[in-house]
Amino acid sequence: MFSTVTTVVTVAVAVALLLLLLSMRESAESAFERGTGNMHLLVTKEKDRLTSVLNAIYYTAAPSQFITWEEYQSIQQRFGGGSFGPGALQFLIPIQQGDSYRGFKVTATTPEFFTQFSHDRDYAPGAPSEDHEAESWRLREGQFLEGDFETVLGAEVARRTSLRIGDRIHMTHGASDFEYEGRGDVHDEFEWEVVGILEPTGSAHDRAVFIDLGSAWIVHAQDRRELEAGGHVETTAAEVTDEDRKITGLLLRALVRPGRQMSAATGSIAYELNRSGFTVAEPRTEVARLFEIVGDVSGILLGMAVVVMVSSGIAIMLALYNSMEQRRRQIAVLRVLGSSRPRIFRLVMIESALIGLLGASAGVLLWLPASVLVSAVMAAEIGLVVEASLHLDILGPVILGAVLLGCLAGIVPAVTAYRTPIAVNLRPIG
User: Fold this and answer.
1) Which alpha helices (DSSP H) does 46-139 contain, by range?
2) Per-residue pLDDT reduced to its tens digit, 364-380
3) CA–CA separation, 148 vs 153, rounded Å?
4) Core-most of 78, 229, 305, 368, by most CB within 10 Å?
5) Burial of residue 255 (number of CB atoms within 10 Å: 0-12, 13-18, 19+)
6) Are 189 and 208 within 8 A, CB to CB?
7) Looking at the whole model, is its pTM more than 0.85?
8) Dihedral of CA 277/283/288/292: which sign?
9) C-alpha to C-alpha distance for 368 and 363, rounded to whole angstroms
10) What is the mean pLDDT of residues 93-114?
11) Alpha helix (H) residue ranges in 59-172
12) Phi/psi zone of residue 168: left (φ > 0), alpha (ψ -120 to 50 degrees), beta?
């Protein structure tokens, strides 16, 4: 009995692991796509498209290259008219990244970030709410960016820092959490007031701190002027020059026809920008490329899960084989009572199939808390909500595979039972 229970548990763990990997792989790709939002293109000066997407949208690191404000205005003027026709751009939103707050990346941007760009890829800016189900950014409390030195916090930032509306904070130069130890280059000359806290989006944006772009320029103008003056100076918006008006990326969406999400102008815009020396990435394409890159790792993990499944099949075989050794006398009695050898063979095969089925059923039950735990860890550590779900095209083959594996594992014990001699095993004990 103990060996049978142990074998069922082994099969359950293997099935749960396999289901977890299969369901998480599909859900993780959807979660990453959720963060790309409704932009068509991401324009940067980074050397690699995938790196630019990971930095700008998933906040993995600080960008290393800048776009000047003059270049931004040139793009806006060029593709808002001319050969592309008036209004060729739905939005062109500048962002600047590089600072942080307690390890959370800071994105400086304009109010259009919250009114035009959306974390939801199906959100259509300016469309009546009844025309689509998607909603843009939603506030848990407070308001969006309206004035200088205001900040809006992602849901995960607010949860981990316990900041509230009205609190004042200082940003840190660079992507660092050294301010915990008092060693970071903190912009202590300027305070930002928390004016809004976002509802969870289920994307990496929950781990971001958003500030107004103009205030970020003032802070970096202060750094430049103090370096030039060799001491402390007072800086306002009037002292900001074009040299200070740097941005690290542009979120671009071309004008689309009502009811559509893509634009025929996107390819032409990307081609022209690439020719002009910019790095142009289509976020959803880069996410797909990312999963191609990690596909080999995913395959290795799935292979390991299959090996565990095969190991559980060997455990079924050993458990039943040892059981047959101990039940030879019972098998001989059944033979005397009229059971044929084929029937004995079928009974053992049915038993092995039942062990596989029980293990698979227990594995499905074990998968549920395991998936909840893994989802919670991923949400806490990387800010992505990965809601694993089981579909019949995953669940069916895994359960069927566990039952078939049990049947295969039962062949050797069944043959052993089939060949059990009657006379030898009915001799009196002792």
Assistant:
1) 49-58, 69-79, 112-115
2) 898 888 888 877 777 66
3) 15
4) 305
5) middle
6) no
7) no
8) positive
9) 9
10) 93
11) 69-79, 112-115, 155-161
12) beta
Listing DSSP states for 248-291 in one string gives SEEEEEE---TT-S--TTHHHHHHHHHHTT-EEE-HHHHHHHHH
Tokens, residue 25? 């792989």
- Among candidate residues 213, 215, 166, 175, the one with its CA nearest the CA of residue 194: 166
Paired tokens of 70: 């003059």
Backbone dihedral angles phi then psi of residue 353, each to the nearest 5 degrees: -65, -40
CA distance 302 to 309: 10
Contacts of 235 (CB under 8 A, 6+ apart): 218, 221, 222, 225
Instruction: Determine the longest span between alpha carbons in the chain, in angstroms.
Output: 107
Distance from chain centroid for Cα 77:
36
Alpha carbon distance 215, 151 (integer Å): 10
With contact defined as beta carbons under 8 Å apart, do 43 and 250 qualify?
yes
Amino acid letter, residue 35 = G
Which pair of structure tokens corresponds to residue 304?
Answer: 């390991």
CB 246 within 8 A of CB 218: no
Cα separation of 236 and 224, whole Å? 13
Return d(Cα 430, Cα 422) in angstroms, integer.
17
Tell me the C-alpha distance between 207 and 157, whole Å. 5
Going by C-beta distance under 8 Å and a sequence separation of 6 or more, which residues neighbour residue 30? Answer: none
Q: pLDDT tier at 260 (50, 70, 90 boundaries)?
A: low
Please return the burial class of 302, using the count of CB atoms within 10 Å of its CB with bins 0-12, 13-18 and 19+.
middle
What is the C-alpha to C-alpha distance for residues 343 and 323, in angstroms, rounded to an integer? 17
327-339 per-residue burial string, b: 16 or more CB within 10 A, e: under 16: bbeebbebbeeee
Instruction: Please answer whether residues 103 and 177 qualify as being in contact, where contact means their C-beta atoms are separated by less than 8 angstroms.
Output: yes
Question: Per-residue pLDDT averaged across 124-137, rounded?
Answer: 53
CB 237 within 8 A of CB 417: no
Which residue type does 302 have? L
